[in-house]
Amino acid sequence: MDSHHHQDIEEAKSSSVDDEAFLVASNVAMSLAVLAVLKAAIELKLFDIIARDPKMMMTPSQIASHVPLSQYPNLPRKLDRMLRLLANHSLLTCSLKSDDDEHGEVERIYGLSPAGRYFVHRDDGDTLANYVRMVNSRVIIDVCLNYKDAILDEGDNLFEKIHGKPMYHYLETDAELSKSFHTSMADLSYMEMKKILEGYEGFEGISTLVDVGGGNGMCLSMILSKYPSIKAINFDVPRVIQNAPSYPGIEHVGGDAIMLKYICHNWEDETCIQLLKNCYEVLPEKGKVIVIDLITAEAPDSSNGAKYISSMDNFMFFCPGGTLKEFESLCQSAGFSQFHLATTAFSVYGVMEFHK
């Protein structure tokens, strides 16, 4: 191989690397477009339309015919632009078909992908559609636009700085956002608890389970469906409890903790340790606290799991996530004798046991 040929190869490699770097950077810079299109697609119920017959794929014109309130000649073309972007991000599948006429024009047909099914509206909670709409609300976006202040200011609560009160207090004044928030949290809890129950057997043998911050009690209901002998107590603030539905076997009362599901990430370490100490004091010998939370990796990587955890970690604005070692440190600081990572759900949610 002569030196000129070798140089050409190296220059081609360098150009390819630079091209990829530019595209990675540009896609991140344009990520708002993905979120905007996704939100619009959910509001237009495009995923619902495509999901009506999972075996069929639909053209933009066919999809447009099911969009209510707005029918005009250019609608299929506009929808096609959205659908292509969603397919590029693996939220839809796409195939090409040629018309039978003499022009032989190519038309795209779309179907629902495994990831896209999470944006179909469902009554059972197995959906992210409500979550997307909640995080794209004006109230949340206003906080996101001021993220720099969360870094530069010593204060922790960016939401309070922007809106005048902490988020959970703000929800008491905004009925629409409160409903959206609690619905989306219930949806997330349903999907996560469904996955947890597939691989976690630590509820076996528990006589009384108290869920702190248990919301409407749905998670406990799912646990009881598999472990009906458990006496379940749901503990939350009165405004949540008073709107909670009645589930067989669940008592909606205030009490002490056994299960802390996505509680620790709401507080700094000192508060978490005090909460865990309170749990420790009321637990019987050999009792345990089940802590369910996102586990942050020690080193960043480009996997979907790592991206999701880091996104959620930053989206909390002021409440950092924790590594496995940090959760173990909380366990020890609160006086527990044993820490155990029992299982994970979706490879990101850790189910940890703190044994007395």
Automatic annotation (TrEMBL):
<dbReference type="GO" id="GO:0008171">
    <property type="term" value="F:O-methyltransferase activity"/>
</dbReference>
<dbReference type="InterPro" id="IPR016461">
    <property type="entry name" value="COMT-like"/>
</dbReference>
<dbReference type="InterPro" id="IPR036388">
    <property type="entry name" value="WH-like_DNA-bd_sf"/>
</dbReference>
<dbReference type="InterPro" id="IPR029063">
    <property type="entry name" value="SAM-dependent_MTases_sf"/>
</dbReference>
<dbReference type="GO" id="GO:0032259">
    <property type="term" value="P:methylation"/>
</dbReference>
<dbReference type="InterPro" id="IPR036390">
    <property type="entry name" value="WH_DNA-bd_sf"/>
</dbReference>
<dbReference type="InterPro" id="IPR001077">
    <property type="entry name" value="COMT_C"/>
</dbReference>
<feature type="domain" description="O-methyltransferase C-terminal">
    <location>
        <begin position="148"/>
        <end position="337"/>
    </location>
</feature>
<dbReference type="Pfam" id="PF08100">
    <property type="entry name" value="Dimerisation"/>
</dbReference>
<dbReference type="GO" id="GO:0008757">
    <property type="term" value="F:S-adenosylmethionine-dependent methyltransferase activity"/>
</dbReference>
<feature type="active site" description="Proton acceptor">
    <location>
        <position position="265"/>
    </location>
</feature>
<keyword id="KW-0489">Methyltransferase</keyword>
<protein>
    <submittedName>
        <fullName>Isoliquiritigenin 2'-O-methyltransferase-like</fullName>
    </submittedName>
</protein>
<dbReference type="GO" id="GO:0046983">
    <property type="term" value="F:protein dimerization activity"/>
</dbReference>
<keyword id="KW-0808">Transferase</keyword>
<keyword id="KW-0949">S-adenosyl-L-methionine</keyword>
<feature type="domain" description="O-methyltransferase dimerisation">
    <location>
        <begin position="32"/>
        <end position="121"/>
    </location>
</feature>
<dbReference type="InterPro" id="IPR012967">
    <property type="entry name" value="COMT_dimerisation"/>
</dbReference>
<dbReference type="Pfam" id="PF00891">
    <property type="entry name" value="Methyltransf_2"/>
</dbReference>
